[in-house]
Amino acid sequence: MEALRVEHLSKDFGGVQAVRNVSMSVETGERLAMIGPNGAGKTTLFNLLSGQLPPTNGQVYLFGQEITHMAAHRRAHLGIARSFQATTLFLNLTVMDNILLALHGTRPSRFQIFRSATAYNHLYTKTRELLDSMDLWEKRDDPVHAISYGEQRKLEIALSLASEPKLLLMDEPSTGLTTAESADVIGMIRNLGKDITVILVAHDMDLVFGVAERIIVLHYGEIIAEGAPEEISTDSRVNEIYMGAEETKGNA
Fold first, then answer.
1. In the beta sheet, which residues pair with residue 168?
2. Do the beta carbons of residue 221 and residue 190 sit within 8 Å?
3. CA-CA distances (angstroms) from residue 72 to 76, 86, 113?
4. Spans of all domains in the chain
5. Which of 81, 159, 183, 197 could be stapled to 3 by a disulfide with Cβ–Cβ 3.0 to 4.6 Å?
6. Residue 145 CB neighbour total at 10 angstroms
7. Rounded distance, CA 130 to CA 96, Å?
8. Taking a C-beta distance cutoff of 8 angstroms, is the pair 40, 26 a contact?
């Protein structure tokens, strides 16, 4: 079953076409990676999928339901969650409070102001589960600004899982992490149940090839290659684009 289908999706910013006529589908439970040089349109495409931006043209379908013009918060309630490249945490609250707020925001109880403290025991149980999965339980009472950047990145991922998403969009999940922390993220994504479909954008090739079952390559807003990791790693056009990007960067 298709979790996500995109048809002829485009996004223009004035005279710049950041995403050009992209069509793709993602099966339920699939791990898909999107790669490409800086400026290829990866984050813009993510913004179109999550509802942060409206498309200029094209359609987006989630489990067969068209969501092209649906607001981001409504997509979230249908099962889309996203972790951002830059952390979006409450830095002065504790690690635990960040998770509790995220969990509470996904429950109908958020509309009920007066409730007994014991009514939230299930949220504390879920909070421990999420923090344990990121090795953050021992940091639960620390303010977020006091933990390392790598730990903040892990907390960001835990927040994206708080809504029990059906489709998880991960934008550069290993940015700023050490090699060991990045390996932990790879293991975490591998251990996610197949009821969660994962699409990730990353420059970390260890992460991409350690997780992805299929890879899409974007260049100037277009899909120029698609296939299994072993196919992409030997694709001459992909290698040419990346080598050209590196040469340009080196000459800058």
1. 81, 198
2. no
3. 6, 18, 25
4. 2-251
5. 197
6. 11
7. 10
8. no
Note the pLDDT tens digit of each residue in 149-160. Answer: 888 888 988 888
Two tokens, residue 82: 């996203």
Q: In whole angstroms, what is the distance from residue 126 CA to residue 212 CA?
A: 27
**Cα-to-chain-centroid distance, residue 242:** 23
Cβ-contact 42, 219 below 8 angstroms: no
What is the distance of C-alpha 28 from the center of its chain?
15
Q: CA–CA separation, 114 vs 111, rounded Å? A: 9
CA angle 174, 23, 219 (to 5 degrees): 55
Residue type for position 30: E
How many CB atoms neighbour CB 146 within 10 A?
12
Reduced to 3 states, what is the DSSP secondary structure of residue 168? strand
Looking at domain 2-251, its CATH architecture is: 3-Layer(aba) Sandwich (3.40)
Surface-to-core class of residue 179, CB atoms within 10 Å of its CB (0-12 exposed, 13-18 middle, 19+ buried)? exposed
Residues 6+ apart with CB under 8 A from 237: 224, 225
pTM: 0.83
Q: Which amino acid is residue 208, in one-letter code? A: V
Residue pair 68/60 in contact by the 8 Å Cβ criterion: yes
**Comparing 82-96, 209-223, 236-250, which segment has the lowest mean pLDDT?**
236-250
Give the Cα separation of 134 and 100 in Å (integer).
15
Instruction: Specify the pLDDT at position 195.
Output: 92
